Amino acid sequence: QVQLVESGGGLVQPGGSLRLSCAASGFRFSRYAMSWVRQAPGKGPEWVSSIDIGGGRPTYADSAKGRFTISRANAKSMLYLQMDMLKPEDTAVHYCNTSGSRGQGTQVTVSS
Predict the structure, then answer these.
(1) Sign of dihedral through CA atoms 73, 65, 18, 32?
(2) What is the spatial distance between Cα 57 and Cα 76, in angstroms, rounded to a whole number?
(3) What is the pLDDT of residue 99?
């Protein structure tokens, strides 16, 4: 079955950086587009970024453009999200997602 395990979250000051990772198993990772979504307390899920199977056409929400970079390593079944210039409004649980499945999430907290 699909298993997605996120890691890399934490507490960071505004302007700082984090690199999120997602380890995928149970499916042919290289054949699926992948996404990052997040959910802040009291809010609904928000799409952050997606990447196609080859990694050549990433797309970003306006809130992430110019600050976040999505990437993938198909040989390792890994998905990444490099998050720079973090803002307090980035505080949320971040999930990797594919075909309606997501992991348990990793908490990102941006606060001074």
Answers:
(1) negative
(2) 19
(3) 85
* Structural tokens at position 24: 């995928």
SS3 27: coil
Dihedral (CA of 94, 97, 64, 40) sign: negative
pLDDT (tens digit per residue) in 44-102? 999 999 999 988 889 999 999 999 999 999 999 999 999 999 999 999 999 999 988 99
Helix (H, G, I), strand (E, B) or coil at 90: helix
DSSP string of 28-89, one letter each residue: -GGGS-EEEEEE-TTS-EEEEEEE-TTS---EE-TTTTTTEEEEEEGGGTEEEEEE-S--GG
How far is the C-alpha of 106 from the C-alpha of 91, rounded, in Å? 11
Burial class for 19, CB neighbours closer than 10 Å (0-12, 13-18, 19+) = middle
Residues whose CB is less than 8 angstroms from the CB of residue 9 and which lie 6 or more positions away in sequence, other chains included: 18, 20, 93, 94, 106, 107, 108, 109
Per-residue model confidence (pLDDT) at position 57: 86
